[in-house]
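Final report, Chapter 2: Outcomes

The project's central promise was a pipeline that accepts a single protein chain and returns its three-dimensional structure in a standardized token representation, suitable for archiving and comparison. That pipeline is now operational. To close this chapter, we reproduce one record exactly as it appears in the project archive, with the input sequence first and the structure output second.
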Amino acid sequence: MQKYYEEEFKKKIVRLHLEEGRTLKSLAEEYRVSKAAIYI
């Protein structure tokens, strides 16, 4: 079953990764999503 993520949530994750240099692993752990769900 796929999860739906709000557009603002996705933008926040991308911004944290690109602008603040956060790793996808740390973001996945913090926001409790799989790394595969946030790969760009």
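Archive annotation: Residues 17 and 23 are 6 Å apart (CA to CA).
This record, like all others produced under the grant, will remain available to the consortium after the project formally closes.
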